[in-house]
Design brief:
alpha+beta, 8 strands, about 160 residues, about 35% helix, Jelly Rolls, four-stranded antiparallel β-sheet
Length: about 160
């Protein structure tokens, strides 16, 4: 799939919905299609966070490791959602594992490339920061609800 083919796909994704076409043209240069097999790890805790993913098809679990309990799923990411935001915050390391639970197709965006483009174009960087702030808040709220469920706390 060529970059020009990826551009309309990116434009339809909720993260980039109604994004200035000029910014989209810049971002697409950092994008590529990827596929993951069922059971394949996409992210591993402690490793360099250099990419984020727009899930096109499939499902991915986001897990944390808890001593004496093992991995606990804190979120499931599906079509139309974003996987990974640690690429945005130094020291750029994953704080969790992510694993495809079914065959998954995604668009991978190179975090270093995006960060560099944002340094060159501060207005685009601010727009992306606003959009990712929303993703981060949603993910934290989801994690909070999952932890309440894990520990049997009902509101």
């Amino acid at each position: 799939m060529t970059l020009k083919t990826l551009e309309p796909i990116l434009a339809k994704h909720p993260l980039f919905n109604e994004l200035d076409p000029q910014y989209l043209e810049i971002i697409v240069g950092c994008a590529k299609n990827v596929r993951f097999k069922e059971g394949e790890f996409i992210l591993r805790e402690g490793r360099e966070a250099d990419t984020f993913y727009l899930i096109r098809e499939g499902k991915v679990t986001v897990d944390i490791y808890v001593p004496h309990l093992g991995p606990i799923t804190i979120h499931t990411v599906a079509e139309g959602e974003v996987l990974g935001w640690s690429w945005l915050v130094a020291p750029y390391r994953w704080h969790f594992d992510a694993q495809a639970i079914v065959a998954t197709r995604a668009i991978a965006l190179d975090g270093k490339c995006i960060r560099n483009k944002c340094e060159e174009n501060k207005a685009m960087g601010y727009e992306l920061m606003k959009r990712f702030s929303s993703v981060i808040v949603q993910r934290l709220q989801s994690t909070q609800m999952q932890l309440l469920d894990v520990y049997g706390i009902r509101q």
